[in-house]
Amino acid sequence: MRAGIGSLTALALLAAWPAAAQKPADPGPAAAADAPAIPPPVVSVTRHSGTFGGTRISYRATAGETYLKDKDGKPLAAITSYSYVKEGAVDPKRPVTFLWNGGPGSGSLWLHMGAFGPKRVVIPSDAKDDGAPPYPVVDNVHSLLDATDLVFVDPVGTGFSRALGRTDPKTYWGVTEDAKAMAQFIRLWLDANGRWNAPKFIGGESYGTTRSAAVINELEGSYTDVAVNGIILISSILDFSQAADAPGNELGYVTNLPSMAATAWFHDKVANKPATVEQFVAEAKAFALGPYASALLKGNTITPQERQAILPQLSRFTGVGQDYLARADLRLSPGRFYKELLRDRGLTIGRLDTRYTGRDYDAAGETPDNDPSFYAIDGAYTAAMNAYARGTLGYSPEQTYVSIGGVGDWNWQLAGNRERGYLNVAPYIGKALRENSGLRVFVGQGYYDFATPFFGAEYSLSRTGMPTDGRIGWHWYHAGHMMYVRDEDLAKLSTDVRAFIRGR
Fold first, then answer.
1. What is the Cα–Cα distance from 312 to 412, expressed in whole angstroms?
2. Do residues 339 and 370 lie in contact, with contact meaning Cβ atoms separated by under 8 Å?
3. Within 10 A of 194 (CB to CB), how many other CB atoms are there?
4. Which residue in 314, 305, 210 sits closest to 253, CA to CA?
5. For domain 2-241+378-502, is the CATH number 3.40.47.10?
6. Band of pLDDT at residue 419, cut at 50, 70 and 90
7. pTM strictly above 0.90
8. Domain boundaries, the chain
9. What distance in Å separates the CA atoms of residue 256 and residue 168, rounded to the nearest whole number?
């Protein structure tokens, strides 16, 4: 329930908001001539209450800008965030959780309005298109506000966040550059809110898991540590060698196969179909790591007899005919799979969530025209985020809200990494776990996610250097990349993450 609104500039919120805690430096006459004037950050504070996880909570919502500054106090970028903090005296044991989405280039609206925020947009739970507005925005009983304060963060170039003055936004567009900015934001938020000794969690979805690994390195990888209690990884992509589309790279075919099997099972393309997807996935993993990986690694030295022995098994696990797989040399790329699996029905399947289906311009192409699991949901989320921020939260800047795709020319090179190979941030998590005995990791994966296949996450987090003491917890869901679009999985995800936070 909305209890009251006050839309204020940051100058009136000196005790409540990190951006307000820093008076913008006077740029001086020379600087003023070189760059446009930068106004103070704008912040809106509103008060509300709701029932989350069965507990009634009154909370303060703070939506607005935090300025990142250089060493001389010059504002360089405005980070927009949405904080939800329980009203009353601060409990020193109450956690705070920082969340972001992926892309890179995505705002935090998906986790914010779909999973953990106090309001959520309702879309069809059965993998159908969201249609046209109005879209219901309702109280989210699955929000985590009963267990933790929440801060949803939009990196530079996403949401309403942006570079300021003559700052080149590319300054923030890179794995390390972005992580440093997010770490700086977290420190500023902790300063302004007096929460340095609170239990802290960070997390994200998709590239947001990449970001989380890079951020933990920025927070804990130096002598000015910000110790963290937990990392929440939803639909993980940490080791990009699996996504490399390069001739001779066989790893992606191996880690993709169980996702193909789960999808074929869902769409009834499996002969002698097992009773559960879990059972079929277990069979697919054993095949992928054993006979299939062996066959791929043999390359052109594989014998005709060995090839023929693999084809029937590969066809069963993928749901695709043996003739097609033979022409593809046993290597079924994701794009071809999306188009081929249901070609006989005139349908394509989704990438973010392979439960979704769509119809292309025609059925003759090699890959789909578009991703039906994205265009089925994007309209609802964008409309809901704008309506909620600009209306309920009273925060309506003169910028377009960038849902996704707001950055370009991303620097994929890790700082200090002289190797010019693929990106892998999983070792950052291993190092943090080895050096922080109180750190735990939550991993949530959807069976029908092809953007970040679940077996790839299992591979990444089981390499040398990862502790095997049970501090990495695994959870699987019967949906795709954004498992919370399915009502049953939203409830399960909320319960699982709440237990993770409380289980510290």
1. 39
2. no
3. 11
4. 314
5. no
6. low
7. yes
8. 2-241+378-502, 246-375
9. 38
